[in-house]
Amino acid sequence: MGTWHEIAKYPNWFQKSCASSTQATYALQANGQLQVLNRCKTDTGEWREALGAARQIGGAASPQLKVRFAPEWLSFIPLVWGDYWIIELDPDYQWVVVSEPQREYLWILSRAPQMPASTYQALLGKLDKLGFDTQRLQASKP
Fold first, then answer.
1. Band of the pLDDT at 56, cuts 50, 70, 90?
2. Number of domains in the chain
3. Which residue from 103, 101, 106 is spatially nearest to 7, judged by alpha carbons?
4. CA-to-CA distance for 24 and 67, rounded, in angstroms?
5. Which of 130, 74, 70, 69 is closest to 98 using CA atoms?
6. What CA–CA distance (Å, rounded) separates 21 from 104?
7. What mean pLDDT is predicted for residues 59-68?
8. Gap between the Cα atoms of 81 and 9, Å rounded
């Protein structure tokens, strides 16, 4: 739960207008559902937001989520739910690396808007060993 700041990502079409301050906030709702608010600033400094929902798949310790930003009334359609799998997690919960089975998407997220260079380089080494193309990563502006 809480806010995560994007440090780097594989470029993708749905974040094309994001220029800086990209973040995701996860909040547990009273009804037990998980709300996801993704936001970023555009080139003009305006905030752009996408409100969605997430659900954990697997057991209570599973690192796999399904996330949707389509309207709730479409949630019965499997294709509106995207995979969001935690592939690396800091033991102190200060950073996380997220991808999905096809490895088309990759995000490095941090609790702080910036990450120490040594931590970032260590993550690049881990991702390289996992077979990710770290040359595709694009640094995000705080």
1. confident
2. 1
3. 106
4. 12
5. 130
6. 22
7. 87
8. 20
Write out the DSSP string of 97-117. EEE-TT---EEEEESSSS--H
Phi, psi of 126, rounded to the nearest 5 degrees: -65, -45
Q: In the structure encoding, which two tokens stand for residue 86, read together?
A: 């935690």
pLDDT tens-digit readout, 28-41:
988 778 999 999 99
CATH of the domain at 118: 2.40.128.20
Q: What domain range is 62 assigned to?
A: 2-139
Task: Give strand ranges (E) for the chain.
Answer: 2-9, 20-28, 34-41, 47-57, 64-68, 82-89, 95-99, 106-110, 138-139
